[in-house]
Amino acid sequence: MRYLSLEWIEEIGRLVAADLSLQALGADHAIGITQVITDSPDGTVTYHLQSGNGRVAFAPGPAEPEDVRLEQEWFSAVDVATGEMTAEDAFITGCIRLSGNAPLLLECQAVFAGLDPIFTAVADRTDYGN
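RE: above sequence
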């Protein structure tokens, strides 16, 4: 499946919903993150991560409510996803533009750590080309 396609987003969402330890983090960490990727093979792609009220969800469209918005171009999203660039370097160089409650990202690091194994599990089935 192609990176950031609807199929890819739905597969990540399915794995997030099935991961009980990740779901448990939704009781302690509340955040809504909208990710916007421009210039992808499918045009602009918007998806979200929503954590809170005892659950974590990953799905197409914007977060409701949205605490943080991350925007970047396709090439940098692929570079971060494939390890060619770290997320930290992408922020520092302006490849990822952040708006909203940045400190909340730090408070919710456990949720992002819980997502890592899911992204790793799908990586070998993901096509990162155009």
